[in-house]
Amino acid sequence: MMEARLNELEAKVAFAEDLIDTLNQTVIRQQGQIDLLQQQLRLLHQRLQEALPPDEFGSSRDEIPPHY
Question: pLDDT tens, 35-62?
Answer without folding.
Answer: 999 999 999 999 999 998 876 555 555 6
